[in-house]
User: Fold this.
Amino acid sequence: MNIDVINLGPMGNCTYLLTEGTEAVLIDPAWDMNYLEHILSEKKLNLLAVFFTHGHFDHIKFSQDLLQKHHLQAFLEENDLALSGLEPQFVHTYRGEQHLQIGPFKVHIIPTPGHTAGGVCLHIGNALFTGDTLFPGACGRVDLPSSNPRQMRQSLVKLSKLPEDTQIFAGHAYGGKCSSTIGYERLKNPFMRNAIRDEERL
Assistant:
């Protein structure tokens, strides 16, 4: 599986293009659909699915145009549908953990509420697409509507139990970096370390 990191928009957003041969999946496409369409056309890719890690506008903006053109419904956890602003006919909602086979892609959807009520991480191969749940050295904000600090701590603990060599790809390139590993974050990320420590005290 090949992973292209595409930085789009004024907020350092990371859109991810996953490819196996000519089959493709997009994660959090936002801001510049013309550019994404250019890449799909240039590489002669067949877009099989679109996934959103959560419903905030900066991860979704203008994506409805792409969904309409490709006759797709994006996968979005149902708790974030209203937050997303997407018209329901363009969204396939679900609840809870999911295991999907999309063409050659085995997708494990892990619920990770905290930043939003419907936040998820997408585990595909050895890659974990964390949206705004986990960043290198940080985690997502929990002072926004539908955020929940306690759920964020629980989500960080859940992610910390994945294999140490799991490669994470975050929703923003804050500080110029969007990737790390679970093992490194377990050791160095103060938010994950504190969440683990709090769980061990219970």
Remarks:
- The chain has six helices and 14 strands.
- Residues 149-160 form the longest helix (12 residues).
- The two ends are 40 Å apart (CA to CA).
- The mean pLDDT is 96.
